[in-house]
Amino acid sequence: MSLSLLAFPLLSWLLVLYLCMLVLAISVMPRRMRKIGTLGDGFTFPLVIRACAYMGSFILGKTIHGHVLEMGFQSHLHVGNELIGMYAKLGRMRDARHLFDRMSVRSYISWNTMVSAYAFNYDCNGALEIFQRMESEGMEPNLVTWTSLISSYARSGWHEEAMELFGLMRMKGVEVSGEALAVVISICADLGAFVRAKIIHEYAVKGGFEEYSFVKSALICVYGKHGDVNGAWNLFLEMKNKSLASWNALITSHAEAGLCDEALEIFSQLERSGDCPRLRPNVVSWSAIIDGFASKGREKEALELFRRMQHAKILANAVTISTVLSLCAELAALHLGREIHGHVVRAVMVNNILVGNGLVNMYAKCGCLKEGHMIFEKTERKDLISWNSMITGYGMHGLGMNALETFDQMIKLGFKPDGVTFVAVLSSCSHSGLVHEGRRLFDQMLKKYRIEPQMEHYACMVDLLGRAGLLREASEIVKNMPVAPNACVWGALLNSCRMHNNTEIAEETASHLFNLSHRETTGTYMLLSNIYAASGRWEDSARVRTSAKTKGLKKNPGQSWIKVEKNVYTFSAGNNMQRGFEQIFEILEELTFQMEREGTVHDTDITPQAVYQETRLTMRV
């Protein structure tokens, strides 16, 4: 039977018409082969497999794999390597690993493909495992292997470890390549190590690597990230033949420097100069500009750009999906998040760890913790970010014990917590009133896990103790900190004073905040005013607000919103002229009455009386 009949019985003509020119190449070639009685071989199969990976078609790829088995090419080394690469690019690492483990003979390409596969899927643990296994089986890792391993660490955010690997590679006498230098320069950009990057730049010049397009592109990124956009522009203009990678680097450098509008202008220039197909914006171009706007808090514009990307028929990759999922999480845009999830399933990206972590975070922040937990459980190879996301999700929903159980499970599985983990678990304890557990974990940070508590960890402890009414203990922690407390720590203590109407500690804390802040904000004034109001000291409350007004400080009203039948309703603090305000106030009174009856009211700011006094004071000021 010919390859044509084997490969395409399930494809409809409509799908064939829709697919790109590569599919046409795949479909036309076998028909010609059939006429001359030729079957697929070790040359044609790899080409077809590579095309499936390029198109992102798992179904077609699986079909081709089936024909490989039927025709007895499962032991063909070149075919096996291409199948591993295809499954990796489709995010099917379990299939890729299964194939690799079953190979009777492996070449350097096999090993390097597997390390690169894990790197591509942001799994540095898997990459290191294959690297070490390669050494144990007597295969000396070559330059490609080292570069792939370093890249996997860089893509996973393990930058210092990646730099250590680069140093080890040089100690072992492995020759440095332009690709390796480009990876290391990119790491320097992420670390903000501009001095180190300039040293590597000099090394690249001496070694004759500077004119390599990918090295120059990495240098453009590092100069841009350092804020030297003029230096980035000069490097770009020096290039005789500007590649798409160099355009993308210039866009990224401006976006990461916070110059979103300038980045968009460069992106538009790229669109206008796209006479050559190779110089049209690709998924990297779109991802860079979307991430730039997202990082500057311009979420709606970022989402509009994502829609433009979809209309341009550019398929999103894992990085783009992760960025958009973060936007959905910040905006609580559950409907769009579910839409993205559907795209992930259709594109067979559910096993991509970056996407999986983004989905867990999105569902947790959108209030759908059950769905987030299901995705977490289905994630095949979890990393530390996966665990941190799940712990954070439990904490946000007040499920402190679940967060602690997840933390313990993570430790038992051999994961080492980091500073982010402890922020997540301490915050979970704080929101669930788990004082004893929070104290224990804070004490273990340095003693057991060798993690020096940072400012955010002290803020979590102050919040934990303050919420529990242990204001004196919280105050002592602040006074005994090894570094000077910042506004975040003092703010946590002041907020606790508000919750428990402690004017004595509040006044002392507010004075520290006033002295600390070079640029005064309304937050401290409003908190202190509310504390006075809750204690019945209305004149002091009005005096503090008047002081804020005299200094020209203006409070930005808090907002909340809810989506009902595709309509978004926004509520602003202090705006009592909104439609249905009287009914809302009546429901608030009823809920407060029920909470008081059950003894669950701790925050006096939510009572109707507090709302009324807040409104009255706002009008006076």
From TrEMBL:
Keyword Cell wall biogenesis/degradation appears in the UniProt entry: no
Pfam families: E_motif, PPR, PPR_2
Keywords linked to the UniProt accession: Membrane, Repeat, Transmembrane, Transmembrane helix
Annotated transmembrane regions: 6-26
Superkingdom of the source species: Eukaryota
Record-level Gene Ontology MF annotations: RNA binding
Listed GO biological process terms: mitochondria-nucleus signaling pathway; RNA modification
Stretches forming PPR repeats: 107-141, 142-176, 243-277, 282-316, 383-417, 418-453
Gene3D superfamilies: Tetratricopeptide repeat domain
PANTHER family documented for this protein: PENTATRICOPEPTIDE PROTEIN-RELATED, PENTATRICOPEPTIDE REPEAT-CONTAINING PROTEIN
Similarity section: Belongs to the PPR family. PCMP-E subfamily.
Entry protein name: Pentatricopeptide repeat-containing protein, putative
